[in-house]
Specification:
CATH architecture: Roll
Largest sheet: 8 strands, antiparallel
Order of helices and strands: EHEEEEHEEHHEHH
Number of helices: 6
Radius of gyration: 20 Å
Distance between the termini: 23 Å
Structural class: alpha+beta
Number of domains: 1
Strand content: 35-45%
Length: about 200
């Protein structure tokens, strides 16, 4: 991670809020020094001050084998990003850059039992489906659920360290920041517009 002081976010509440807002994250592990990664939706919970990430994966995949072999994982939560051209700087004869926000969580992964996996899938489904939805978990037939559970492994990650970088041109003078916000706000790129919004909110 690019840990430059002016970009580091140390407020855990802000980091957790970011993780909640970008919970479709990349979970990265390694098996005998060979990296493996998968992108999955996660539930983020704080229990007795401990951050836990819950999700599920398919069995018999490279990442499943990596998580079996090595409990140490890295989880990457990433948000909007945008190219920032030095053309809008007071001094355009400067380096252009890229603004972005991301949080990295290092932790220990534990694969869950079949019953725990069922509960994890139910909780995640209920998070996105209203109780009256025809796709709500309680509408699924037990035999359908049991059949699919055989191919799925739930997991829990206990977070041991958390780092956040919100790189939003904090190292630039006010006039540059205002010019960047104006430029990104006028872009057709929705991510650029979101970065402009974050910069305005960040001050």
């Amino acid at each position: 991670m690019y840990k430059v002081g002016s970009f580091l976010e140390k407020d855990n509440d802000k980091l957790l809020a970011f993780m909640q807002a970008h919970s479709f994250a990349v979970v990265i592990g390694a098996n005998e020094n060979v990296p493996a990664a998968t992108q999955v939706p996660l539930q983020i919970k704080v229990i007795d001050g401990e951050i836990k990430l819950l999700g599920h994966i398919m069995r018999k995949t490279d990442h499943h084998e990596a998580f079996l072999a090595n409990e140490n994982v890295l989880v990457l939560f990433h948000g909007a990003h945008a190219y920032v051209s030095a053309a809008v700087y007071e001094n355009p004869a400067s380096a252009s850059t890229w603004n972005y926000s991301s949080v990295q969580a290092v932790g220990k992964i534990k694969l869950l039992s079949s019953e725990e996996t069922r509960l994890a899938i139910e909780a995640l489904t209920n998070q996105y489906e209203g109780k009256d939805s025809p796709a709500a978990f309680h509408h699924l037939a037990d035999d359908y659920v049991e059949k699919h559970l055989k191919a799925i492994a739930g997991f829990e990650i206990v977070v041991t360290s958390l780092d956040g970088i919100f790189k939003l041109s904090q190292n630039h003078p006010k006039v540059n920041r205002e010019n960047i916000v104006k430029e990104l706000s006028q872009s057709d790129d929705l991510q650029a517009q979101e970065v402009a919004r974050q910069m305005t909110e960040n001050g």
